[in-house]
Give the backbone structure.
Amino acid sequence: MKEYPSQNFLNECFDYDRTNGLLYWKTERPLSHFMTEGTSRKWHSKYSGVEAGRIKKENDTLSYKGVKLQGSEYYVHVIIWIMVYGYQPSLIDHIDGDGINNILSNLRECTSKKNSRKSKINTRNTTGIKGVRLTKSGKYQVDASIDKKSVGFGTYDSMEYAAKIYATVAYIMSGENFNEHEYFPEDTNEYKFVEEKIISKRK
């Protein structure tokens, strides 16, 4: 799971409006956040007080807000949780199913099984399991969206195994699980295979 900055650092970067669920860049960030005074002035002239984050489409049915900070991309809802509660959760569920709605009352820490109940399945899906389709040869193909590109993660004899591969993709990509199957543990070959493929497709 991707490690996020500390609560103190995030609160130096952002303000969170609980009434509308939006995250804003601080009107004044510490000089220590920048390489030079000139960089600081340039950043403040462009971003001071501006809403932080943009909508990121994870796949055909799910979108979140992401924000770039110190060269890395982070999920806004995770940042908000850390700012408010002081720790990074394993999973966050958007209660109403809308990944853009980051009002605090719409966010809750949960297990992957709870989150899986909110997953949506593409109407072209032939198995009833998100990310897994039945091929003409009778095997199960795993497909997922990586940076808006469809990527295949292999074809398998077992639908259950294929579902776990997709669940692992979803977990690595966003820290959330999108079907009823548990992802493979991090010390397994399957997890490492999925992780390496995601990294290679993002290069």
Observations:
- The chain has six helices and ten strands.
- The beta strands are 14-17, 22-25, 54-57, 63-69, 72-75, 92-94, 107-109, 132-134, 140-146, 149-156.
